[in-house]
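To close the section, here is one more complete example, presented without commentary so you can practise reading it yourself. The ligand is zinc ion.
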Amino acid sequence: MAFLERSTKNTENRYWYPEENTFPVSNRYTTGVAGQRFFGELKDNARITGTRCHSCQVTFVPARMFCERCFARLDDWLDVGSEGTVFSYTVAYVNRDGSAKPEPAIIAAVRVADGILVHRLLGCNAGEVTIGMKVQAVFRPEAERTGSILDISHFRPV
Amino acid sequence: MRKVAVIGAGMTKFVRRALETPKELSFEATKAALDSCGLRLEDIECVAHGSAPDAFDGVHQKGEYLADGCGGWNKPTMRVFVGGATGVHAIIHGWYHVASGMFDTCLVVCEEKMSNAMPHAQGFFLTIFDHTTERALQPNLLWIFALEKNRYMQRYGYTKEDMALVAVKNKNQGLKHPASQFKDPVTLEDILNSEVMAYPVNRLDVSPVSDGAAAVVLASEKVAKRLTDKPVWVEGVGWSLDTAYWGTRDLYYPRYTEHAARMAYKMAGIREPHKQINIAEPYDPFGYKALHHMEGLLLSPRGKTVQLLRDGYFDMDGNLPMCPSGGLLGVGNPIAAAGMMKICELFWQLRGEAGERQVPGNPKLGVAQAWGDLMQVSSVVVMGS
Ligand SMILES: [Zn+2]
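Output:
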């Protein structure tokens, strides 16, 4: 396993840390072993990657460290391209506070290899979207990419 | 009820902060447990996993979130959660799955990623206190342990030094555990000179906040005998919950632990636990708790425990070795995984596979215990070879 911070000296191990001396709670997540590489590929190479389980014949997107079906450790990394198909979609008309959106927003579950990326779909009207339509990821410019799923700005029809 | 055996065990290192996601940590422990007994995921019929508050990992419905890392894909999967006692409670939860006759194999997996809580898990503990009578004082968890410890010390005339001996013993024993994050020994002075967090609790009286996972594989008698020559049997299980008005309890004596222990001993046919038990893994998030729990487990007479500790009674070569794993103080405290680590330790000890930590004399019977919720629940498991 991999360590982001190590604390190997008993006597120096802290209970809480001086720079962290207040408790308004939030979380800080790690992307994980597979996530670190997946998001690194998005950021550095504008590339969507998956990992393949050869015994189950499944390519997981986003890439995962292990196959949930057979528990194989996955190390076959594939560039799965930037295209996918609309697996399902919704059109959102209201904001989270209940107010009307100025423009309806299309949210699509995009099938890429054997996985799904849920993302915004731009470049078409709600009436033009169909399940099964081909779409393509549009990446943000390199300088704006941070290693986030939002390094993909949106998907658009091919 | 059918007999249930532990046939495999595995765990990750317990570290300050791991890159692995909670799912990935769970996978590593689960995979290690499966590999240890030569089983594949397809051989497993169900999953019983345990993890403490969702808040630590920062994922609500953590049971569902963790399931694939615990081998739960397309299988009957059920999570149990009783705060700090979860790690020992989880094997009871798994035991039911097999003892009932419903399943022949069951994975029991515990995980905690404490470092996801920002800036510290204490922020999430705030809301376990009564919202009107206590929370206004901005308590942290150390306070209630400090109150309990102070009462325990006062009742029997124990000193801070007496209590610090446990941290010295367990932290130095933990150096022998491959999953421990620590590499250097500590002295009594180190413990006593570390800063006071909340009197009488010093910083090094407290177990280290950690990330980690641990897992075991359970099997019915028929399957266990087919797969291994060295099954370790779950001989007895018990658990008990005291009042949530924690300040109204004795504090100096964990009677809920005694209730849980009596239940487990009765099932295991144990009449004189202090004579029959060869190894004890009491829950030790704080040094004094190990002693407090030894009394509750009926393994040490009330008020005599410090003398026995000083006399070496609980040493590795003593009459009743205590925390041969190094415990939470020595290995680390990823809450649920820490309790499961104690179950793993009994498994390795009772099979004679504990390496450098092996208790001499072929131990045959061990007890593990964990404690949690609002310091009012104990779960106890007796295991035998
Ligand atoms: Zn697979």
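Once you have examined the tokens, check your reading against these statements. Residues A 53, 55-56, 67, 69-70, 72 surround zinc ion (CB under 6 Å). Chain A has a mean pLDDT of 93.
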